[in-house]
Design brief:
Blueprint (H helix, E strand, L loop, with lengths): L1 H18 L12 E2 L2 E2 L3 E2 L8 E3 L9 E5 L4 E9 L5 E12 L5 E3 L2 E3 L7 H6 L3 H4 L20 E9 L6 E8 L4 E11 L15 E7 L5 E2 L7 E8 L4 E7 L2
Antiparallel strand pairs: 1-2, 3-6, 4-5, 5-12, 6-11, 7-10, 7-12, 8-11, 9-11, 13-14, 13-15, 15-16
């Protein structure tokens, strides 16, 4: 009986870990080759490069420091996804300096041959999640909140459109800004009730903790990674991904 129980627990643990597999390669920017983070490419011709940083880190021992002289896009466009499947995306950022228009998410879907057009992305209803937060189209300017000197995490959950078989995980650093990036993930499944980071916050009225599979957690354990959903009295919701100390 003990052996059967052990095998059953092992099987469940294996399934749980598989469901939480991070589809982003080198998402914590731990490995580099000649000042280029492995599995990532810079796609802006005029943008600045990147450098590994060990003094300001969210996960692991290294983050990606971008000191931009122009709009700088880094991308990982080799991620395979399944149409109709729900995914949770998370990315941490630390704005060290800038003018308030410093950092932004800039992701997109891929069909069998190319990327979605802007209009196709808008038609999915997901533009505001992947080019936002809260941005309706490219004429808008929705940067991450101007909160310098602290790690923040943007988290969103979405369902892949019918034509989407690939995902381009892209992030932007804007001119004259210095931003550290770390702890990127894209996993199958949704964190129930998790919303997007918002800038206009009030008094905290509730906090809920989730594990990476979306289940609520009564008491976070040291050394484990969690999503914290904070609700404010003005209806704003902020989510942060963190490792319990």
């Amino acid at each position: 009986m003990k052996k059967i129980t052990f095998l059953l627990i092992s099987f469940i643990a294996t399934i749980t870990m598989a469901s939480a597999q991070n589809l982003v390669q080198n998402g914590s920017f731990e490995t580099w080759t000649a000042n280029v983070p492995d599995n990532w490419i810079m796609i802006s011709a005029s943008g600045s490069g990147a450098a590994p940083a060990t003094n300001i880190v969210s996960d692991g021992t290294t983050s990606c420091k971008v000191t931009a002289t122009a709009t700088t896009n880094w991308s990982q466009s080799t991620i395979t996804i399944t149409p109709g499947t729900t995914y949770t995306l998370a990315m941490s950022y630390y704005i060290a300096s800038g003018d308030g228009t410093d950092a932004r998410i800039w992701c997109n879907f891929k069909n069998s041959t190319t990327f979605f057009t802007e209009q196709e992305l808008i038609d999915t209803g997901l533009y505001s999640k992947l080019r936002g937060p809260g941005n309706a189209n490219s004429s808008g300017s929705s940067y991450f909140p101007d909160e310098k000197g602290a790690w923040k995490t943007y988290t969103t959950t979405f369902t892949a459109p019918a034509a989407a078989v690939g995902f381009d995980f892209q992030f932007r650093t804007y001119s004259n800004a210095t931003v550290y990036w770390d702890n990127f993930s894209l996993v199958e499944g949704g964190n129930a009730g998790i919303g997007d980071v918002v800038a206009d916050k009030g008094v905290v009225v509730n906090e809920v903790f989730y594990n990476l599979q979306g289940a609520t957690v009564a008491e976070p354990l040291s050394g484990q990674t969690y999503i914290k959903k904070t609700t404010y009295d003005n209806g704003a919701i902020e989510t942060t991904k963190f490792i319990k100390k």
